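sorry to bug you again but im stuck and you know this stuff better than me. what follows is a protein written twice so to speak, once as letters and once as structure tokens for the fold. mainly i need to know what kind of three dimensional shape the backbone takes. anything you notice is useful, everything is just below:
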Amino acid sequence: MSPVNTRARTPTENPGANNSTSLPKHGVVGVVRLGSVGEAVLNIVAANLQEILHVPVDILPARQTPEFAYSDSRKQYHAALILKNLAESRRPHPRILALVSVDLFIPVLTHVFGEAQMGGRAAVVSIHRLRQKEEGSRIALDTFYERAVKVALHEVAHTFDLVHCSQPECIMRFSSGPSDLDELPLFFCEYCEAFLEEAYRRYDIQRLPE
């Protein structure tokens, strides 16, 4: 199992942030929790996004559960409505990721771990189904944290135009269930890494200094 970092760094803590090619005052990705999401998983997701994507990440003030997206017929929350709301945020961050504890769906699937606007601004991750095994028993806390990081990384990468990958050792491989998710690595294959670098250039995203 891949290790996850446990501390979120702010852009001002990054080495080289005050040099002649200083980073923007705000991060590239803003991470916000909507509703009852624990602070620990929020910090761990933010720290690992920053470490793996090599861009500054900010933790934004918490907001309420997005009740506007609730579906009475499904007893779940419509992911696309949450994405639309996030995309309209006045925050200066080019990308916004929301963490929610409610169960998400899109019309063609019974549920989703996360969803993102391909090449857009917004992504959302639900921790609702990440806390247990497929048969319903609880998983170890470190496995839960790792699952949350993997889904977050996968969905944010979609906002940078990365599509699902056929390489077995790539975070962009499609996962149909928790067992698939547990097999994913916490890194991109060489092809997706190259696509991500190209996306940074295309969107004028400045990486953190090595």
About this structure: The mean pLDDT is 89. The chain has five helices and nine strands. The radius of gyration is 16 Å. The first strand starts at residue 29 and ends at 34.
